[in-house]
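Dear colleagues,

As part of the handover before I leave the project, I'm documenting each prediction I ran so the next person doesn't have to rerun anything. This entry is a single chain, and its sequence is reproduced below.
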Amino acid sequence: MDLIIYNPLSKNAKSNVFTHKLVRQYKRSGIPFRLKSVLKIDDIRLYLEDKEHIDNVILLGGDGTINRLVNNIAEYDIKQTIYLKSNGSGNDYLRSLVSNDDNPQTVMQATYDNGFKTYFMNGVGMGVDGLVATYVNKLPKKGKLRYMITTLKALVHYVPEPVVVEADGKTYEYKKSYLVTANNGKYFGGGMKITPKGDITSDELDVIIVHTISKLLILPIFFTIYLGLHTKFTRYVTFFKANKVTVTYATPQVSQADGEEINNVNSMTVESSKRKLHLRYYDHKKSAE
């Protein structure tokens, strides 16, 4: 039997439509299933522990829903096969997973100066990245165009701050920094190719630092992110791979981990958790064969 988990509060207008469509496909195919709201499962690990009749879990949702799943199961051995299907608004992790689900993926972790620790699969960031997450999470509806407009708004409002980044023994220091991201996935912000060489199966992080640039110039560079061409602006964009990264801002910031906000933090340390999950991209046609 398959367990379909969906998020009824998704701010993507198409999410409920797709959920009902998938249910109809299951009924037509004659595949046994159960439909469950993510809001009615307090702990998915405990929920699945005594459900030996469930073979597969299909999680419908965006990056935030995946992030909550990962933080719930990362430290445990889940017997069921877990499939992910886009049904939210971000879906940036799914963009990397769709062509790369043959091997287990790395669970990364971020630890903050306030003691909070979180797991993530796609990426974390501080600076304007966190401000974007704050704005996006307040939107009544989400979508790619809204992400782009919200990011432009955040770029206009954000005041660049001094930052120190320590990565594998090297130190990078800038007086004016817009953002620092440390990613495993390639995308953020609804499809922006922020780290073109990101690898979700790797223990290495792809780090991007945007710095020392005027707001008039950052706006045109912003549009090149969709094609992954921003890394060519090496005067303003520093990028490298690292196993462990510590980011320290001079003033409190908002951070985001897979789109989830972490407020009022000055620093974070990001590295591999040394844990792996084998999440698969869900294709109903293949599953029904």
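The longest strand covers residues 260-277. Residues 15-29 form the longest helix (15 residues).

All the best with the project,
I.
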